[in-house]
Amino acid sequence: MSTKPPASPSLRNAYLPLEVFRQAVAQADVAISITNLDADIIYVNEAFSRVTGYGVLESIGQNESMLSSHATPHAVYGEMWTALMAGKPWTGRLLNQRKGGEQFLAELTITPVLDAGGNTLYYLGMQRDVSDLHRLALQVKNQKTLIESVIDNAPVALALLDADGQVQLDNQEYKRLSALLDTNAPAMLLLEKLQPDWRDRMLAAKNKDVGEGKRVADKLLAVGFSTREVRIDRPGSAAPRWFSCAALPIAVQDERTDDFYALAPHTYLLLVVSDVSALRRGQEKARLATLRALMVEEEHAAALRESLSAALFRLEGPLNVMDSIEHVLQHREPGMAEGLHAALKDGRTHLESLRQLIPQGCQEAMSPVNLNEALRDVLDVCTPRLLANGISIHWQPDAVLPAVLGRPMLLRSLFKALLDNAIDALSMRGWKEREISIVTSRAKGQAQVSIDDSGPGIPAELRFKVFEPFFTTRGTQNGHLGTGLARAQEAVAGHGGILDLLEAPGGGCRARVELPLAENNIEEHAENREYVHEHA
Ligand code: FAD
To answer: What is the pTM of this model?
Structure first.
């Protein structure tokens, strides 16, 4: 007879000496007990003694109920015995008591040991003390509840975004922000304004090899930014709002088991937003008062410039006529011609002195200008006139209009001239429909501004003529020199843009301005970013 064990593992087990099984059970690091059908203990191993405090000998003959702390609900035992009586195993948690009286939470599995006919002969119980595990799980749960309630009640809006830009966690204040800005993705709106390439940065930090260590950390840092302030203009008459934002990159290990040995972190971006509108509104009020004063001053200077230019332009006419007369007189009355020549020379000298006296406008430096902000300023400055003339405004700013590179005051004066024209057109006595719509948008590297009025419009044959200096359809009595559009066109051209006068959809006039966006130029782009004020 061969003593060599068979090759199959299952068959090989059959040849294991019984003593090996005995020792395996006796030395197992899990508390094992075997009972009869009444749960009277007939065997316990060393680990059982360690966990329960009852020695091997003093356990034998006792009922398992000796471990009961009498705090486990009867229903649990009911469930347990129902399963066991049906010949099925049972697993559950019981509040047990050690010999010394100390309570512990036991995770217990009882398996019926069956004979060949399927009748239960014994019960095999295996239990372990899961008190620490339970405490830890509860601590995590409680901490989560605490953190969630702190986050939820925080006075700032919080949103945790994953690498795909999905919001994984947010709080009540973020939901309020969503309602305030009338968008279900306020985080996207703010990030697009503050860090337009944030998605690329997130993707660059995502799924990097373990070995990349420092580079991953650097890339992760590049995703975030410290406190930056941003202004959001909202459609209609709603006042703009200011938000102070910070973005914090967070790297966490994934909970999935397939990532157990992979150290590549998953990147999240925590966006913290606080509404600083009240503070900014106060500052804004003061800034607008200064701006209003500056614009009035600039308008006075421009009016003086234009009045003098107009006077010079008109004086040139008679002088030219006299010039022609002088030529005629030179042959017939040379004496008179000479006198006239001297008078003309004097006249031209005085005209030239007058021309030298025309005040020059100050040259502003080019800087990134947000057209939404410029238009909002102009609207604020013009509010008294709009109210006085009963004109309603439909203000529809592009939510993320990038900056243009330009002269801030000159652009404001340009839009004020266009808005003043629209107000003048609607302020005619008896004109009923009084609406102005201002829309900003961007297309093909250009920022577009449309100012539509519901006035009588400009006849097609005059649409080019109105740009000529000193041309006006309103007469010069009310201070209309007819130079506003000529100046506006000059200002737009100076910014590399286009100014058109078209027919508005309602029949009135549409003034459309197109200006190149600063981001078209790499150098300009760098400056453009600074429009978002960053505070260290
Ligand atoms: P009991 O009067 O003993 O029982 C409560 C109810 O359980 C009864 O009303 C009855 O419906 C049912 N029941 C009890 N015994 C039987 C039975 N033999 N057949 C059918 N139904 C029955 N309990 C612990 O508290 N801690 C343990 O660690 C533990 N380990 C166990 C390990 C094994 C292998 C087995 C078989 C049982 C174990 N028990 C354990 C259960 C224990 O035997 C008791 O049922 C339990 O402790 C309740 O005891 P009691 O004195 O409060 O109520």
So the answer is: 0.55
